[in-house]
Amino acid sequence: MHQFDPAKLHTLGADLRALRKSRGMTLSDLADQLGRSVGWLSQVERDMSEPSISDLRQIADAMEVPVSFLFGHASAPAEEQGYVVRAGARRPMGSGEEGLIEELLSPDLTDEFEVIHSTFQPGASLSTPNQRPTQEVGYVISGKLDLTVAGNTFTVGPGDSFRLRGEVYDWENPYDEAAVVIWVIAPPVY
Q1: pTM (2 d.p.)
Q2: pLDDT tens for each residue of 104-156
Q3: Quick one: three-class SS letters along the chain?
C-alpha cells in the first residue's frame, strides 16, 4: 500500500488530471484536441514536463477554465498542502466580469467535489441562464441573492441553502450589498 503524499496533490499536473477526468475526457481525447502527443500530456499531468504559456492557454480553453486558474498555485508549508487553504492563499477563478468573484476553498481538484467561495457584487447578474451536469448545494453567508431554478424564483439570504441538480438556473443580485455564498459542486467544474 502506498503512502498518501499531500504534496503530490497540490500541483498543476494533479489539477489538470482532475479537470480532464471531471469532464469525462481521456488522455487521448485531450491530446488530440491540443494537437499534442499522449506521452507529452501524460508527462505534464505527472509534473515531469512543464507546459509553456501557450500550452497553458490551449489547455485552459480546452478545459473551459480561465488561464489564471492554472497559475493559482499558492505555496503552502508542506504539512498543510492537501489539507489547509489559508484565507489569503485561496485560488481565484474567473475574471469577475459578471460581478462574480470566486475562490477555490478546496485544497485542490482531486476530490469528487469542489468547494467554492462566491461573492456576487451588488447589481451583478448572470448574462444568460446556465445549466451544467452537476449536483450543487449553496449556503448563503451574507447578503441576498435572487435565484431562478427550473423556472421558480427564490430570494435567498443569510443562513438559507439551496440545491441544483442539472436544472437550468439563473442568478441576480439587485441589492445594495454583496452576497457571499459557499458552493459545493460535484463533479468539479473548475
Answers
A1: 0.69
A2: 898 877 788 989 999 999 999 988 898 888 999 999 999 999 999 999 999 99
A3: CCCCCHHHHCCHHHHHHHHHHHCCCCHHHHHHHHCCCHHHHHHHHCCCCCCCHHHHHHHHHHHCCCHHHHHCCCCCCCCCCCCCCCHHHCEEECCCCCCEEEEECCCCCCCCCEEEEEEECCCCECCCCECCCCEEEEEEEECCEEEEECCEEEEECCCCEEEEECCCEEEECCCCCCEEEEEEEECCCC
